[in-house]
Amino acid sequence: MGRHEVASTTISRILTFIRARNYEPKERLPSERDLAEKFATSRSAIREALATLEAMRVIERRPNSGIYLREWDQSSIEALVLHADSGLSLTREEVAKALEVRRILEVEAVRLACSRRTAADLKSLREILDETAARVAKRQSIENEDQAFHLGIVVATRNDVLVRVVNAFYEMSKQRRQLYFSDADRCELSYREHCRIVDAVEAREPDAAAQRMSEHLSQTAGSWASLLSDTDA
Question: Domain HTH gntR-type spans what residues (predicted)?
Fold first, then answer.
C-alpha cells in the first residue's frame, strides 16, 4: 500500500471513529500515540492524517494540550467530501441543507450560463443529453450523466471557483446518488427536465432557465425527502 493510500485510509478510519464514538465539538480526542496503537499503524501515518484534518478545520491541535474536534460548521467543504468517501452517510438534515445550497448556486449558475455559454458548451450539453437518452431508453441509471450535465452548466459560467464548489457537492453525494438514480422513472423525469433547461440556455433566456432549474431541483429535493423517509422506515 502506497503512502498516499495509507494516509487516505487512516483519515477515513479516524473520521469513522469520531462519528462512531459520538464525539462532540471541542471535545478532546485520543492522542497521536493512542490513535496509532488503536489503528495499528505508524505515528507518522497518524501525524499526516491529522495534519490533513487540521488543514480542513475538522480538528484543532493545541500545543501541550491535545487534539480537539472543531465545530462542524467550521470545517471545509472538502471535509464533507472526505466524510462521504469514508462511507459515512449524511444525515437527512445534512442532505436537505446540501440540496438547499445546490439550489442557490445552480439557479444563479444557469442564469450566467445563458449569457456566457459558447457553442462548444452547448454542443457538450447536447451530447450529454444524447447519452442520457440512450440510457433512459434502456432503463439504466443516469447517475454519471446527471453529474456531467449539472457540471456542464456550471462550466459554461466560466467561473472556475464555482465549478470547484459545485463539484464538491456532487462528490459528497456520490453514494446516495447511486440509490437515487436506481429508479428508472426518476431518471426519465430528470432527463426531460434537463432537456427543457438546455433549451432555455440555448435560447439565452435566463429567467426561463432559472425557473426550470429551480423547479428541477425542487422536484429533486422532494424525491430525496420521500426516499430518505423510506430508507429510515
Answer: 4-72
